[in-house]
Write a structure and sequence with these properties.
The protein is an alpha+beta fold. Among the domains are: 29 residues; 32 residues, no CATH class. It is 44% helix and 13% strand. It contains 4 helices and 4 strands. Strand 1 and strand 2 form a beta hairpin. The longest helix is centred in the middle third of the chain and has 19 residues. The strands form 2 sheets. The protein has a two-stranded antiparallel sheet.
C-alpha cells in the first residue's frame, strides 16, 4: 500500500489495510490530535452530542464539587505560574478593546509575506484545543 502524509505531524506512514482512508499516523500524539479534532467537529455539528457532553460535564461537576479547590491546594506551583500568566494576559488584553474568546492581539505586526507555521511539541496537557507553533519567515514583501 502507498504511503501517505500524516495530517497532524506531516510524516509519511502506511495506512492500515483495514482503513485505507486513514489520514493520521499511529503516533500517540497524532492519534490524540485525531480524537481532539473528531470531538471538536462532533460538538460543532451534532446538537445531541453537544447536549450530552454538557450534561455529562454538569453531572461530573455535581459529583466532584470541591475538585478545583483540592487541585489548587495540591498544585501550588502551577497555580502561581498560571496566576502570573493570567495577569500578563489581562494586561495585554486590557489594551485591546475587542472582547472575543477566539481573538488575540498581535504582540508585533508581521509584515506581509510567506511564512512556514510548524506545530511544536504538545506541552500543555490541560488544554486540548491549543497548539503551540513556530513561525518561520520564508520571504517578505
Amino acid at each position: 500500500m502507498e504511503k501517505k502524509r500524516c495530517v497532524a505531524c506531516g510524516c509519511a506512514f502506511r495506512p492500515r489495510p483495514q482503513n485505507p482512508t486513514q489520514s493520521y499516523c499511529p503516533a500517540q500524539v497524532c492519534q490524540r490530535e485525531r480524537r481532539r479534532c473528531w470531538q471538536r467537529d462532533k460538538r460543532h455539528d451534532d446538537p445531541d452530542y453537544r447536549d450530552n457532553q454538557q450534561r455529562a460535564q454538569q453531572a461530573w461537576c455535581q459529583r466532584n464539587p470541591d475538585y478545583w479547590c483540592q487541585y489548587r491546594r495540591k498544585a501550588h506551583q502551577h497555580v502561581e505560574i498560571n496566576g502570573a500568566r493570567q495577569s500578563k494576559r489581562h494586561d495585554l488584553d486590557s489594551s485591546n478593546s475587542a472582547v472575543k474568546m477566539d481573538s488575540s492581539a498581535a504582540l508585533s505586526a508581521l509584515p506581509s509575506g510567506t511564512y512556514l507555521i510548524s506545530r511544536m511539541a504538545d506541552n500543555n496537557p490541560v488544554k486540548m484545543d491549543v497548539w503551540t507553533v513556530e513561525i518561520t519567515v520564508i520571504s517578505t514583501g
